[in-house]
Amino acid sequence: MKSARGLKKRCLGRVALCGILLWMACPGLWAADGGETTVDPSWEYERWKRVGEAAAELALGSFEKMGLRPRKGDLVVMTNAGYAEVDGRSTQAVLDGLASVTGSSRGRHSLVEVHSAPWAPLWCAVYDRSSGWNVYLELDPSRAAAGKETAVAGLFRPAVMERIDSEHVLAHPSSWDLKIKNKVFGGNEFRILTIANAVAAGAPTAAVRAVEFHDHYCPGVASGILMAQYLKAHFPPGEGGYFVHAVKPWCKEDALLVLLNATPGKRAYAVDYPTKEDEAGRLPEASEAATIVYRLQKDGGGWEGRVLAFSWAETPCPKTGSALMDKLCADLWYLKQMEHPERYVKVLKDFRLPDGVSPRDWAAPGVDPLKMLGLMQTGKSEK
Ligand SMILES: [Zn+2]
To answer: Model-level pTM greater than 0.85?
Structure first.
């Protein structure tokens, strides 16, 4: 054990050099203690921060090769660092490495943390909003595997550079459909294109938060952002916030979860997945019912609820037949509507729960809140 500790000490003394040059060249990184393997947290932090710095330097180098010298303030950095894991290890420190080289920041929405599964490959995208070019970098997990001696910059697959500003993309639908088919950004094309263009268009904080959690920006999540905006303005929260019950779930749920802090874990969010038959059994006035939102009235007045629908707009976007083009165009159009949620969010019914009844009672298994509200055709809902 003594020799392992000594080796670790010497290794930590050389941490800077090891971190800059090589990935796992320092043999004392892993210290055996009582049969358990441990990792020095500061070593681990420095190493992953260096990975982030290397990604940013590779991206800036790619711009330079194209004759581009983007201003730091024009860069939007997107990554799943912190969510993606490599060999079960956190990649959180990559965020600090990316920020230190690019000058990107959470406060300016120029460092966007895109949700992913821990098993998704670690990726970073650096978008220059002035030129419209984006550099995509993805870690090669086999090179980053524990014990491999690889220069940090060599951990990434070759950088991919594409012009992704909406003006250019919308003018080249067939070429972008092919690029998506070929997964030029490792399957992250839709999320990178929609998020980069939304941030470049000045997406408000609420939209960025929702989009980060949802992992892409689509009209569905835009409807959830608008619904949250509507609630804040026209149905302010009661003490303890809201209870939300989705009676027709779609991408909007992820926006409502994040923006209202109403979550299932806090027993404040319920979701029904109605069948086609369930939906067909709704009365015409409830056919578009999407979400029921509850709040507590003041002075012990019990719960009141509001049944909401979302009216999709006829956007001026042309129907190209390309899902990416149509959604990207609609996304950017909805972004301009964020100040006018009442144009799209419709109230179907206001009601009060009987004394002593909570929204959770109406979200219990076998209870259909629309049936309780008399909004189902008799005998049609069997829930
Ligand atoms: Zn979506």
So the answer is: yes
In contact, 115 and 83? CB cutoff 8 Å: yes
Pairwise CA distance, residues 381 & 274, whole Å: 10
Distance CA(140)–CA(121), nearest Å, equals 8
Domain annotation for the chain: domains and CATH numbers: 45-202 (3.30.1330.20), 219-315+336-372 (3.30.1330.20)
Closest Cα to residue 194, out of 212, 182, 181, 173? 212
CA distance 118 to 48: 15
Q: How far away, in angstroms, is 39 Cα from ligand 1 center?
A: 38
CA distance 225 to 260: 10
pLDDT at 156 over 80: yes
Q: Say which residues have a Cβ less than 8 Å from residue 231's Cβ, sequence separation at least 6.
A: 237, 242, 260, 293
Token code pair at residue 284: 């015409």
Q: Enter the tokens of residue 188.
A: 């992250």
What's the CA-to-centroid distance between 106 and ligand 1, angstroms? 22
Tell me, in angstroms, the distance from the centre of ligand 1 to residue 182's CA.
21
Q: Rounded to an integer, what distance in angstroms lies between the CA atom of residue 330 and that of residue 219? A: 6
Instruction: Calculate how far, in angstroms, residue 138's C-alpha sits from the geometric centre of ligand 1.
Output: 23
Cβ–Cβ < 8 Å for 54, 47: no
Check if the beta carbon of residue 132 is closer than 8 Å to that of residue 167.
yes
Rounded distance between C-alpha atoms, residue 83 and residue 378, angstroms:
47
DSSP for 1-19? -HHHHHHHHHHHHTHHHHH
Tell me the pLDDT tens digit for each residue of 313-368.
Answer: 999 998 888 888 899 999 999 999 999 999 999 999 999 999 999 999 999 999 99
- The CA 213 to ligand 1 mean position distance, Å, reads 10
Q: Residue 379 C-alpha to ligand 1 middle, in angstroms? A: 34
For residue 314, the CA-to-ligand 1 centroid distance in Å is 19
Q: How far is the CA of 361 from the centre of ligand 1 (A)?
A: 30
Going from the Cα of 2 to the center of ligand 1, the distance in angstroms, rounded, reads: 54
Lowest mean pLDDT among 50-59, 224-233, 372-381: 372-381
